[in-house]
Specification:
Blueprint (H helix, E strand, L loop, with lengths): L1 H18 L4 H15 L8 H37 L7 H18 L10 E7 L4 H20 L3 E9 L5 E9 L3 H5 L4 E8 L8 E12 L17 E6 L15 E6 L4 E5 L5 H26 L16 E6 L4 E4 L5 E2 L2 H5 L4 H11 L1
Parallel strand pairs: 4-9
Antiparallel strand pairs: 1-3, 1-5, 2-3, 4-5, 6-7, 7-8, 9-10, 10-11
Length: 359
């Protein structure tokens, strides 16, 4: 019983310290403004802006509710501890509150200017031929499952399918509170070692896939160093190479967008209509330009030559050695033998450890 009382006391103190760094009054004011905007009769005249307002409204309301509920639960346990002491029958309540606090504490590490944003993730097959393309599709499924577990929505933005199997590349958007903050640490090279099903002799083979993670940026975002002029943009239209409906593959709905000053190229081809793909391409370009600007600042250079990638092929972050039942993160040294669970989206241990490492 003394152990439970000590745990509640420690929990209360740690929550108090974090709570003092959060301006709940500012969050409630932000909620009030968003609620006012949501009641504007002309809100849905601009559906895209309306959806963003409603998404932000849900996110900030959920955040306030989470803080207030956790505070109430901790205060209740503290009152019991100080009054009569925590008894054994309340152990499960203490454990549940501790677990909720750890989730809250983890989110407090996400203080970057774009951490609350949706994320745009691209997976690119590297060395390994068909095996690498298959690996890219396995990673894609892994991340989709992870998002489903968190009740985040995903939307395919662009895809290039492999000749025999898998994907040469795939780009998708993750919509959810703090999606970019949680996912940004997944950027880098993912290494797969397994007995290849594409090898007649079932030999052990190593292949690689690159993950890029960018925040979703909007036209109204004021990001220093980014100015997109219409005269700097070259749009090319072509028929999609992927599966689709009556328009895709039959008319030139796919879009390739070239930003001439930097040479950055983005493509979008999953929507049935050209205008929708144009919009996605602009979204991707904004994110790529932002990442390029960040890289130049970090390198302290005025210009960036050659092909640019937000994540480097040399930056290997995790090894998945399936024939030995071992997945290990090379940054945090977190590892597990439950490879099946990880490939089915159980990434919490890896992502949480990386967030704590960077905090």
């Amino acid at each position: 019983m003394e152990d439970l009382n000590n745990r509640v006391a420690a929990l209360s103190e740690e929550f108090k310290n974090i709570r003092e760094t959060i301006n709940i009054a500012d969050k409630k004011e932000e909620l009030r403004v968003l609620e006012s905007e949501s009641m504007n009769p002309k809100l849905w005249d601009d559906p895209d802006n309306a959806r963003k307002i409603m998404q932000n409204l849900d996110a900030i309301k959920s955040e306030i509710d989470e803080i207030e509920k956790l505070q109430g639960d901790i205060e209740t346990l503290s009152y019991i501890a100080n009054d009569s002491g925590i008894t054994e029958d309340l152990r499960s309540d203490v454990q549940k509150t501790e677990k909720e606090f750890q989730k809250f504490k983890l989110k407090s590490f996400l203080s970057g200017p774009y951490d609350k944003r949706n994320a745009i993730m691209t997976l690119v097959a590297g060395q390994g031929g068909t095996e690498a393309m298959d690996w890219t599709s396995i990673l894609y499924r892994m991340y989709i499952r992870f998002c489903e577990n968190r009740e985040w929505k995903t939307e395919m933005l662009d895809i290039s399918e492999g000749e025999e199997a898998g994907y040469k590349s795939v780009t998708f958007k993750i919509t959810g509170s703090y999606a970019y903050g949680y996912m940004k640490g997944e950027a880098g090279t993912h290494r797969l070692v397994r007995k290849s099903p594409f090898n007649a002799n079932n030999l052990r083979q190593t292949s690689f896939a690159l993950a890029e993670v960018l925040p979703e940026l909007e036209e109204m975002d004021e990001v220093a160093g980014i100015e997109i002029k219409n005269e700097d943009l070259e749009f090319q239209f072509y028929r999609s190479g992927g599966s689709g409906g009556q328009n895709v593959n039959k008319v030139s709905t796919a879009v390739r967008l070239i930003h001439q000053p930097t040479g950055l190229v983005v493509t979008a081809q999953t929507e049935r209509f050209q205008e929708a793909n144009r919009k996605i391409a602009m979204e991707l370009l904004r994110a790529k330009l932002w990442a390029r600007e960040q890289a130049m600042r970090e390198a302290n250079v005025k210009d960036l030559k050659g092909e640019y990638r937000p994540a480097s092929w040399g930056n290997q972050i995790r090894s998945y050695v399936l024939d030995k039942k071992m997945i290990k993160d090379l940054r945090t040294l977190v590892e597990t033998g439950n490879t099946e669970a990880v490939l089915n989206g159980d990434l919490d241990a890896f992502i949480e450890a990386e967030l704590r490492l960077k905090s």
